[in-house]
């Protein structure tokens, strides 16, 4: 018996022994007079045990059948063992048409050690920062390296853009690495969809912040910083990862939810994931996004033309022309077309625009210069005249050179040049759009039909 039951027993016993009136007992116990009479009758028939509810210690009459509980836990153990109770309940409803309350499922998973309640976890210390007031005022960006496809594909990086005021995912993009070209393409997708925000908030990665402490950032910005400056967007770098905790916590949530969602959707490649991500973003924002303190949208319209944006979202470097109208960029010699107008450009500086799709453009002011390429790494020797008696030695030497080439893959570009991973993927997508065989020649099958 509980303390309340013991107290009730003393009061009802006093009523039975006529030391207390039933009306006074009802007022004291907050019961009706008729209920006090019932308790008196049960006390006389069953003793003190009659005052305890008869269902105490017995299973509830409204409980789920044991077979239903076993079925649900079997599904969770087989398919959703690492899911949280909330996410597991969502998938049970969406994919299996099984309805169960969230708290009931949580208790079941705790009992089966499929979930650890937050009260049993180590406490965390957070120093909160107030959210910004409006959408588009501050966008936190970060790259999350993770085994997103759980071994079905190689490890890659997810570029995350999240709004500080609302917690909305503004853009997601998978890429092989966290490179400047990848951020350029992700930012291009962002402004095409939402417009220009007031500022981006990032860490001190070399893509955003110059590693040269002696350099003045305003005079020597990074390529990404130069791009945002041309667009009129402020770039703010945080001193620690805790300062941009909004995107860091979003990365943890995505590493839990997004990985499992792609597993259920049978998504195994970066291309498939990038095509499906807009649906995930819409569902994520519907569940977790919060309204801003003020309804004003701080995004500005994009006033630059498509060609101007293409030039802005490129790797730009300055080169000086020699007397022969040539210059070197990324271990490739570029020969400017020798015309009467171009002959005046000797010793002048030109701008090299290296686009994410792998194409190159050379500008002098607002004028585009025609050029030819001489790749020092791709030189081909002309056919040699070899005496018949020495042909064996020449073939042996050629075989050794081929083995060295296959072993070393001796084609290394300049370390100062941008990484080409994003460009290779962009070129492969263009070839795949033209003809899938161009992107993957192994899929080609010769026709066996013969025309009469």
- Strand arrangement in the largest pleated sheet: 3-2-1-4-5
How many E strands?
12
CATH architecture of the largest domain: 2-Layer Sandwich
Structural class: alpha+beta
What does the largest sheet look like?
A: 5 strands, mixed
CATH homologous superfamily classification of the largest domain: Ribonuclease H-like superfamily/Ribonuclease H
Biased composition (Basic residues): 413-423
Organism: Aliivibrio finisterrensis
Protein name: ISNCY family transposase
Domain Integrase catalytic: 124-309
Describe the structure.
Helix content is 39%, strand content 14%. Strands 3-2-1-4-5 form a five-stranded mixed beta sheet, with helices on both faces. A four-stranded antiparallel beta sheet has the order 6-9-10-11, with no helix packed on it. It has a three-stranded antiparallel beta sheet with strand order 7-8-12, with no helix packed on it. It folds into four domains: 3-51; 66-120; 139-288, Nucleotidyltransferase, domain 5; 314-380 and 418-445, no CATH class. It is α+β, with helices and mostly antiparallel strands and 452 residues long. The protein has helices spanning 3-16, 22-29, 33-46, 66-79, 85-96, 102-111, 180-194, 223-231, 245-264, 270-288, 306-312, 391-408, 421-434, 436-439, and strands spanning 139-146, 156-163, 169-175, 199-202, 234-237, 315-320, 326-329, 332-336, 349-354, 360-364, 367-369, 371-375.
């Amino acid at each position: 018996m509980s303390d309340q039951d013991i107290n009730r027993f003393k009061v009802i016993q006093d009523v039975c022994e006529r030391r207390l009136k039933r009306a006074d007992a009802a007022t004291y116990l907050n019961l009706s007079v008729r209920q006090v009479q019932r308790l008196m009758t049960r006390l006389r028939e069953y003793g003190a045990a009659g005052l305890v509810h008869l269902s105490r210690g017995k299973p509830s009459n409204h409980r789920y059948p044991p077979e239903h509980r076993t079925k649900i836990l079997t599904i969770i153990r087989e398919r959703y063992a690492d899911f949280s109770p909330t996410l597991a309940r969502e998938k049970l409803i969406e994919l299996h048409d099984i309805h169960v309350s969230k708290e009931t499922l949580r208790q079941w998973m705790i009992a089966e050690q499929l979930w650890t309640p937050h009260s049993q976890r180590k406490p965390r210390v957070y120093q909160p920062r107030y959210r910004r007031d409006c959408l588009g005022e501050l966008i936190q960006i970060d790259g999350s390296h993770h085994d997103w496809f759980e071994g079905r594909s190689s490890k890659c990086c997810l570029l995350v853009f999240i709004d500080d005021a609302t917690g909305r995912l503004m853009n997601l993009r998978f890429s092989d690495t966290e490179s400047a070209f990848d951020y350029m393409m992700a930012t291009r997708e962002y402004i095409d969809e939402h417009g220009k925000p007031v500022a981006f908030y990032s860490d001190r990665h070399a893509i955003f912040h110059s590693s040269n402490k002696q350099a003045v950032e305003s005079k020597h910005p990074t390529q990404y910083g130069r791009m945002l400056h041309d667009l009129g967007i402020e770039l703010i770098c945080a001193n620690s990862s805790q300062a941009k905790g909004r995107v860091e916590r979003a990365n943890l949530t995505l590493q839990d939810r997004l990985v499992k969602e792609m597993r259920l959707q049978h998504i195994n490649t970066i291309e498939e994931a990038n095509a499906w991500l807009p649906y995930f973003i819409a569902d994520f924002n519907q569940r977790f996004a919060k309204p801003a303190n003020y309804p004003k949208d701080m995004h500005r319209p994009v006033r630059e033309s498509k060609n101007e944006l293409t030039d802005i979202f490129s790797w730009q470097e300055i080169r000086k022309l020699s007397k022969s109208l040539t210059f070197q960029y990324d271990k490739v010699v570029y020969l400017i077309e020798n015309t009467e107008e171009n002959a005046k450009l000797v010793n002048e500086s030109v701008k090299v625009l290296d686009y994410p799709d792998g194409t190159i453009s050379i500008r002098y002011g607002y004028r585009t210069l025609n050029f030819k390429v001489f790749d020092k790494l791709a030189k081909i020797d002309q056919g040699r005249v070899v005496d018949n008696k020495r042909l064996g030695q020449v073939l042996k030497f050629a075989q050794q050179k081929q083995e060295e080439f296959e072993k070393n893959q001796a084609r290394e570009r300049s370390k100062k040049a941008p990484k080409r991973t994003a460009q290779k993927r962009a070129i492969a997508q263009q070839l795949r759009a033209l003809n899938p065989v161009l992107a993957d020649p192994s899929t080609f099958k010769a026709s066996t039909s013969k025309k009469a």
